[in-house]
Amino acid sequence: MTSRKKIAVRKKNTPLQRARPAASSARKVPPSAANTDVPTRRLVVGIGASAGGLEAFQTFFANMPSNSGLAFVLVQHLDPHHKTMLAELLSRHTKMTVSEAQDGTFAAPNTVSIIPPDATLTIQDGRLRVSTPAPDRLTRRPIDSFLCSLAEDQGDNAVCIILSGGGSDGTIGLRAVKEQGGLTLAQSQVDDRALAGMPSSAASTGLVDYVVPVETMPAKLIEYQRHLLEVDAQKDPDGLRQDGPTHLKEICVSLRNQLGHDFSEYKEATLIRRIQRRMQVLHVDTMPAYIAILKKDSHEAELLFRDLLIGVTHFFRDPLAFEALETTIIPQIVKSKGADDTIRVWVAGCATGEEAYSIAILLHEAVAKRLVKPKIIVFATDIDDRAIAIARAGRYQTSSLDDFTHERQARWFVQDGEHYCPIKVIRESCIFSVHSVFKDPPFSKLDLISCRNLLIYLDAALQDRIFRVFHYALRPSGYLFLGFSEGIGRRGNLFAAADKKHRIFRRRDDAPSSFPHFSSPGSISQKPSTTGEQSPRSVEDDIAARVDALVEKYSPPHIVVDKSHEVVRFFGRTGKYLEPSSGPASLKLFSVLKKSLRPIVRAALQEVVAKGHRVLRENIPIETDGSTELLNVSVETLPDPAGESESSLYVVVFHDHEPTASIVNPTPTLVPGRVGKAKMRDAEAELRATKQHLQLAIDEAEHASEELKSANEEYQSVNEELQSTNEELETSKEEMQSINEELQTVNAELNSKNDLMNRLNADLKNLLESTQIATIFLGDDLHIRSFTPAMGVIFNIRDSDRGRPITDLANLMGYETIAVDVQNVLRTLSVVEREIQLAEHGATYIMRIRPYRTIDKILDGVVITFIDIADRKRGEQIHARMAAIVESSQDAIVGHSLDGVISSWNAAAELIFGYTAAEAIGKSISILIPADRSDDVPGFLEKLKRGERVEHFEIRRVGKGNVPIDVSLSISPVKNEKGEMIAASTIARDVTERALAEAHRKLLMAELDHRVKNSLMTVQSIAKLTLRRAGSLEEFAASFESRLMALSRTHNLLIESKWEGAVLRSIVAGELAPYQSADGARCTILGVTVRLAPGRALAIGMALHELATNAAKYGALSDPQGHVSVAWEIRDRGEGSRFTMNWIESGGPPVSPPKRRGFGSHLIMRGLAYDLQGEARLDFDPAGVRCTIEFPLEPGVEVT
Amino acid sequence: MDGADGQIDALQGLRILVVEDEMLVAMFVEGVLIDLGCLVVGPAGRLPQAIRLAAAESIDGALLDLNLDGDEVYSVADKLAERNIPFAFATGHSAVHLKNPYRDRPLIQKPYGVRQIQELLHTWVKIGPG
Predict the structure, then answer these.
(1) Predicted confidence (pLDDT) at residue A904 exceeds the cutoff of 70
(2) What is the pLDDT of residues A988-999, one digit of tens each?
């Protein structure tokens, strides 16, 4: 915040500094550098950038020679917590020293200083100032801070460049640099259009001299510097061109001719300084050359005009003054107003409107505190039409509101994108118009005039005139609010200080108010009128005064009167011609003149007024001290020194006759002598009679004269009345003129608003017509207000339906409850959405009812839109079909963004990986990648980004709970309509089953191996055991073979049953088959069907084989009559059931127990018992061999 | 039968536990051992019996079929190991991995003959029955 305040404080001083001699900048050059031969100009280039700035910086310095003599200061938006690499990165592109700015170092030529992180950089007396820490992010505007200090410190030696970056930082600083006469550049994008962000924000001020690409900036700078040095030679110590004044008039004339604005009474120094700037920008060396350009190129006149009008303004500029205004002046104004009154304010020279809005805000705040609320009008005028346009638009950068309290900002402004707009009530209080304070009639009856930082540009005469305009325009005791360095000068008679410190003045009501004379544009040079005033320029010369005294001595006495016969001046000894009438003192000529002279002079004066030429009355008798003198009186118009024909002054001159001169009526002289006494007496009598007669005549004449006089006085009073009426009329006329001006202003404002409305209306109409969305607007009462053409097409609504209630049309839409829905929307302010089917169109619409709000957010009906969703329906169907395919797929189908965030997850994915869709969506695809191989994805992505598919490849993935899953992946890019890859779709097929099968196969192989080995072991054992008991090789071969065959048979049975168990009957039948009779009577086999486990089956099979072979060799089967019975049974079925099998031979030769126990009996007796965990008994009964085998059946053995 | 007399003598009277579920194989091994002059303990075809024998009988060595009617024979091995009696496993699997702690125990591949048994017994004799 502190830095912001600093800016504000500096700004206040700008008018003073504006006039600061440029030469003073030499003082700021560091002493060490000043000793060199190079001219003293040191340009300091402040460069601001933010995002994308590095590249711009690099380009800039790559094109900048390292010996330019310029000092560079780079200000960037930096992360306060990170050290910047900028210096290091830039030093690769320039030979200049690049370093981080240190507090107190000089911005030396051919060096580059960079703002350190978390710091505010400023410049003061050519030294860089670093203060830490930087203000917090919200208020940090390092570029503005630096550029403002640069402008103040370096004046027209400042150069500012705004490079790439977002936001609007730098704009305020650029204004300051420009205002101080510095050069301003901004980075362009293409075609001289400023790059979006900071450059375009800067360019929108219209104050950027060059909007160019970065590459060309260095050349511009060097050229500018060269030109500046050349021109310096032609300047006086104040930094003004010596040839300036001589050409100024021509430039002013040229401007007046082209633009109609006269700057001839602006301060010469200001004008020259601004013209010089334009010349520097154009690289023009001489004034005549510039004038030539000015005359030829109307654009240049425009640019110069803009430059001349540069004014820095912002909200509450000069906060202390505004505070004074707020606390002392405005309450007084507001207090004096009733509810029907209007507070009228005129902001003259309002520029872009901030001041007008500021005052409007203060007034509204003051009014809001009171019960009676007078209306507020702020007339805001400027001659700069472009500034007025900006003011009217009323859109301000966020930065311009920095000095606002939060509360004020929230209360009076609404945010609109990146801009802030004054709320409607403020906007409507301000009327902006293009108006010239000195050319156009003023407003009237104002309570306050704010005219800040305008007078400083004007010369004394023009200032004087403006004060009189203001005096006229203010109502009694109205206030005048001037800029920081402005005052009322000699016009103390018109205004008295109300707050001297803050330049607030109050109108003096004792001074005569006069409607100022306004020159037409064509006669601007006319001097101000001096009606009722004494020319301040009538300075009396000493010699002239002495001559006048002498002339007066010799000249006849005379009296100067005005039109109304009021004596203006007496000259010479007029006393003897005067005889004031009794009564009230008066300076009327005919009240003070000797009575005898009055008729004659009155007649003469009338003649002069009527005819205009001099009138002389001779030999008028006048009585003085009892004697009569003759007198000549001449009356003539007093010539006006200006030579104007109309003059209201007359001079009455009295010429005395010499006493000896021709006396027409000489005093009677007594002649003594001899003339007859009678004759004398007669004559005397006659004389007496004549005298009496004369006296009578004189009395009569006097009487008539008195009557005439009173008549005259009557006329005079009538005349005065008429005159005052006339004056009143004049005043009314002036007021009318002011009101007219005011109306014109309002009219212009309305016109501009109207234009805007028309355009908006046209936009809206086009929008409504071009939109395919059927829209209908309803009033509160459900009456149709308007609708779009699409509505007509769908619902057949015609223009004539406007004003009809929508309920009339409800059935057209097949939507009866519309009224209820609309009422709901109006009541709850929510949005109602319904799907509507139109049977006849076969179309489906989404209908949305929204509340209709006016700009002021006042509810006024509803808007209903109908969106044709036939396409969407189709799309939805396709989508549903695709979704069904995806869902029913056995393969996991996973959609994900380029950075791997999962966006879709089908059922198979859920099945395979175990995560539900809700769990997976939004997570990274890496949850599926085993921790030890998280790096296998980028490679695929590279391939995908080239637009290639990644075809099936097998890889290990993990599911929920880190369960490993082997999948076959294929990844396809998902592309947008431009063919750019925007996402990817991964299809994973679970190959775990396959892997399991593989494992199973391996297991089987191992099992097979095991079985074979076991079988071989068995065979080996059989061989060994057979061999042990064999008598001969032949016997061994036969026995071994038959045993292997028996083994093999049981094996076959087991294989048939997939090694699950062999049916006992089949084993028995198999072993007895070679000996069975055709009718099956030789061997009886009887028993339940029971399936024996492989081990048991093999053992039983082998035992039966031995029994059968033995029987065939020695027993029942060796005799054709012999009989073998094999029977088995299972007792106690279920738990603990036992299997018993009996082998009974009969009908064979008598049996005797063998001498030696053979393999067979050994097998049966020991082996079988062993293998079956049961018992085996072998009886060599003479009637036939019997064998009983008994063993427990494990539960679950298959028995039928 | 075959082999040097001295060697046979060395094996005289050794009490060898045979654990084998297959009757014919058990009979064969029994025969071989008897021929070598050994005394056969068992043969045991089921785990409970084998464990009982391994725990209680006087035994100098044991030949254990790895798979005993579906059960692994390790519990028998545990008993023997406890008693510090040497033993060897026999199996039909060609590439089998013995479980710990029996990784290093001798393993005889089926089918095996007299020779393998004889050699095994000799190693025990050399090591000595603890």
Answers:
(1) yes
(2) 887 777 778 888
What is the reported pLDDT for A77? 82
The percent helix, strand, coil of chain B (3-state, each to 5) is 40, 20, 40
Q: Which residues on chain A are in Cβ contact (under 8 Å) with B32?
A: 1024
Give mean pLDDT, residues A1165-1170: 75
Which residues does chain B have within 8 Å of residue A1020's beta carbon, measured at their own beta carbons?
28, 111, 113
A168 closest CA partner among A417, A400, A420: A400
Tell me the mean pLDDT in the region A209-227.
86
Per-residue confidence (pLDDT) for residue A514, from 0 to 100: 66
A1002 touching B (Cβ < 8 Å):
no
Instruction: Please tell me the predicted confidence (pLDDT) of residue A448.
Output: 92
| Peptide linkage before B111 cis (omega within 30 of 0) | yes
Query: For B28, which of A1009, A1011, A1025 is closest by C-beta distance?
Result: A1025
Of A554-568, A591-605, A644-658, A1058-1072, the least confident: A644-658
Cβ–Cβ < 8 Å for A862, A825? yes
CA-nearest residue to A1012 within chain B is: B92
pLDDT tens digits, one per residue of A948-957: 777 777 777 8
B66 touches chain A (CB under 8 A): no
Q: Cα separation of A551 and A884, whole Å?
A: 122
The pLDDT of residue A14 is 36
CA A705, CA A719: separation in Å to the nearest integer?
Answer: 20
Reference A433, options A394, A395, A382, A390; nearest CA is A382
**In this complex, do A1173 and B94 lie within 8 Å of one another by their Cβ atoms?**
no
Q: How far is CA B13 from CA A55, A93, A117, B33, B129, in A?
A: 97, 99, 95, 10, 13
Q: What is the C-alpha separation between A443 and A735, in angstroms, rounded?
A: 9
* Interchain pair A1011, B92: CB under 8 A: yes
Q: How many CB atoms lie within 10 A of CB A609?
A: 15
Tokens read off for A863: 């808007």
Residue A861 touches partner B, C-beta closer than 8 Å: no
User: pLDDT class for A641, splitting at 50, 70, 90?
Assistant: low
Rounded CA-CA distance B45/A1082 in Å is 36
In our burial notation (b when 16+ CB lie closer than 10 A, e otherwise), range A554-587 reads eeebbbbbeeebebeeeeeebeebbeeeeeeeee
pLDDT category of residue A676 using cuts at 50, 70 and 90: confident
What's the one-letter identity of residue A485? S
**Residue B70 near chain A (CB below 8 Å):** no
Whether the predicted pLDDT of A531 surpasses 50: no
What is d(CA A221, CA A782) in angstroms, rounded to the nearest whole number? 67
**A-B contacts (CB, under 8 Å):** 80
Helix A1033-1056, helix A1064-1072: angle, nearest 10: 150
3-state helix, strand, coil in chain A (%, to 5): 45, 25, 30
List the 676-695 stretch of A: residues with Cβ below 8 A of B: none
pTM value?
0.41
User: Which residues on B lie below 8 Å from A1171 (Cβ)?
Assistant: 21-23, 45
3-state secondary structure of A731: helix
ipTM entry? 0.85
Question: pLDDT value at position A542?
Answer: 66
pLDDT band at A811 (very low <50, low <70, confident <90, very high): low
Tokens for A1116, please give them. 């029942």
**Residue A924 carries which DSSP code?**
B
| Residues of chain A with C-beta less than 8 angstroms from the C-beta of B94 | 1006, 1009, 1013
| Residue B93 touches chain A, beta carbons under 8 Å | yes
Measured CA distances, A353 to A282, A367, A386, A444 (Å): 30, 21, 11, 20
Please state the rounded mean pLDDT for residues A200-210: 80
